Amino acid sequence: MSLSRRIVLPATVALAVAAAVLPAGGVHAAGVPVRVAPVGVDPGTVTDFGVQQSALTVFETHYGTGADDRRVAYGVQMGSPGVLSVTDPVTRELLDTAYLHESSGAWGVTQASDGTVYAGTYPNAHVYSYDPRTRVTTDLGAPVAGQGLLYGLRPGTDGRIYGGTYPDGHVFSYSPTEGFHDYGAMYPGEQYVVDTAVDAARNVLWAAIGSHGHLIRLDLTTGEKRDIWPEALRGDASYPYDINLVGGKIFVKRSQQQALVLDPDSGAVLADGFTMNSRGTSTLAPDGRSVYFTSGNELWRYDLPTDTYGPAPDGAGAPVVGGGAGIGFGFVAGRLYATIGNYSGQALWYDPATGASERYRLPFPPQALDINNITAGPDGRVYTNLYINGNMAVLDPATGVATNVGRIGQTDGFGWHDGLMYQGVYPYGGVLQYDPARPYQLGTNPRELFRMQPDGQNRPIAFASAGSKLFIGSTPDYGLWGGALTVYDIATGIRTTHRDIIPDQAVIALAVIGDRLWAGSTIGGGGGTEPRATEAKVFTVDLATGEKIAEYTPVPGAFAISSVALGPDGMVWGLADGELFVLDPATGATVHRRDVPGNYTGAHDELVVNPADEHVYASLDGYLLRIDPLSRAVTVLRDSQTYRLTQDGQGNLWFRNGVKAPNGAVQYGSNLLRYVPETDGCRGSDLRPTVLTGAVDSRVRNRYGADGCTVNDLIRDEATWNSRAAFLVHVVQVTGQLVREKTITAAEMGAILVAAARSGVGG
């Protein structure tokens, strides 16, 4: 059936159709759609600004022997890939750098009785061997399938080593003749074996278990397991973290740095009441009675025969200042040598006989490190923070130059308010305030506002602000359930923390929308836990009181609501487990759901709304997606290497790269990239769902044309027209072009013309 037989046009519309052949000059100038020049540079392209920082993160050192029995320190470092560095602690030379390919670093390193050095890596959880004589590094593979991290490597006899795993909490061994052996999970329901200690003579191993406090004594011959952790401490959030067997006693540093010395068989407490911040202790000193560790900023000594302890004295009897936490200890020619701290290569030697000491640096080689988080500031610059290392850099997009600002700690969340940056720092749940306009000075700029660890929180992830209020969403500490929403009044300094605002769930997404705070939760608890709740929620909060108003379930059974945002259509948009949803803010009803490419990857998943083209952009699982706010059609812009999405004031999108490992972990993400959205012909588009002319609804679905203008944008019914005929000619010209472009059909053109004729626009 032809268009003319289906729709009978009024006379005015017929005249307009005839007038469509007239030159454009017949239309009032006000009827010409406003075209906006492109914003930014290189629309539709990605610019790689390269590595933002090379820095040093040393996890642990093992003092052992190298070629020709030279005394050396083996340090495992974070990098792309991970690194095993060999240094001489006496001459302070870098002797070798071995790359642990396919890894991002290693938490454990040791030397076996046959001289082979072993590193246990993440996120691939492989064991690597290094031969000090040949300098050959070999990937030996995974000791236990399905793990992400290896911890606590310790030597046994006959070239054998032992270690622990996460997330299944196994103990394993490796020997060159027998390969790997899995001793199984150490404690039901626990995920971490964070350290081990070995008595090779008795063939017994001890496993430190996080996150609820267990210390398992494993008879390696019979397989018998027994928990010797003191009964009073079981279930405590401060669990065994670093353990060492020295002189027949177990030294334990707990996760919150309290220290104990235990009988290795009964678990009886031999000493306590002191703190330890080092990665465990030294081996037995040459005097046969001393064990060394760091406590706070000082070097401490423990006397084995008397079970007494205190600061190691210098020549004048004053405490020796170590300069930080020890991450490895060894003895060379009667002197104690220690690597101090993770981030600057500090080291210390101490002579127990004279009290002499010296602080110096070892030449560990800096590496390109993964970006942990990104934020675009109101000053037009882009700030990045390094994973684990915690250094912050700032990029000037105009010059492409990135400058190191200083170390603030691993920032899992950024927020902005009145030009000031707010930083959520793991692992102590710190919230810091930083003024980019002033010089960096840790302690004063940034300055710590408060810590959330006393409230059971360790990762402040989500930030939003309204008025003088700063809202912070956080996840609980290891072994705990129940995140929090914290309200901090910047003007008064008053803080209120609403713990467990959604029972047994954490708060990982925030957005101020209208007169409420909208939030998204996750059923995930702290590290080492299994979820207690069954599905994530969206909830709303009163901006004045911080009290919860209502909660909704947009995606039943979802693990996490990882992002919420005000959509260009006035609706609340969100992501849940790789699914897009849209809520009506007036009712909380879910009005749209659809799967999008990519799977849930945690708090990294993000939605932003571009003010330039009104489209919604999403990053998840490496994808960069562009979502049409009218049709909600999804366009894949990138199908990999897109993580930690953020947006600057011009609408440009910033993110880091990264390679997804077989176990789902993302690594090698040290580069910062920018995507400039495509040119939009009409900024501030009319997003009403149907095409209206004046007040008359054509019932034709509104949509975008090829140039980023919607049909409602192109029909200029708000302009001043000389006559109705002039307006109708304009409508015919616009809709005719849209038909030729196949944006609308001929039937839809007719319906729009009928509505235009009835609208009264133009008199």
TrEMBL record:
Protein origin, superkingdom: Bacteria
Signal peptide per UniProt: 1-29
InterPro entries: Quino_amine_DH_bsu, TAT_signal, Vgb, WD40/YVTN_repeat-like_dom_sf
Keywords for this protein: Signal
PANTHER family hit by this protein: VIRGINIAMYCIN B LYASE
Protein name per its UniProtKB record: PQQ-like beta-propeller repeat protein
Source organism of this protein record: Plantactinospora alkalitolerans
